[in-house]
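Input.
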Amino acid sequence: MKASEALLIYSFWAALLHRSCCQPYLRLRPSPSDNLPIKDIIEHPDPEYDPKEQDMDDRALRKKLGSHFDPQFMSVVAPAQVNFSSPDPLHRFKGSGPLPNELKKLDLGETPYGTRLKMGKKARRKFLQWLWAYTYCPVLYTWKDLGIRFWPRYIKEGNCFAETSCSFPEGMYCKPVKSVTKTFLRWYCQGWSRQKYCTWIPVQYPIISECKCSC
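Output.
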């Protein structure tokens, strides 16, 4: 494919994406917030609101959480602080999985000038693979300490790499489009002083599970 042909295709693709970039891939309805990842909770600083040693029985808490305990995303002890996906921006050039339908349906022959470009199947396949690799948005996982008032205390949280643009020309960034919900136990207190009553209650915590290039 000649440089002039490639330039025309790039221009067409950019115009096509910018016409539709404001149409969301999926309406997010996570609980308790539409903003992912969840921001840190502002905790009451008084240690009287912390669970005591007798409240931290591992066997009893595992039984209370039951089948919701997911060792892939939860940990009782501090895990090794390593990224499960590389934050290197070049990582997105390693797009994995099948091509998205919006790329498969992309008409690479049309140009902004109303003319048609001839492109063989091999050239089309290579270009679409390059395009998918460039716009690929992996989920970056890191372990997060939720504090003593959550059990399990550590969660593997997902983030979208958004430090650089994922589109050509620039202007679009990796954003969350899907999330999964995990159930944790939260130490919750009611009342004050000696009238205070505290117990473990189940709470749902959304985790980003998919990111896409969007405006």
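The chain has one domain: 3-24+44-214.
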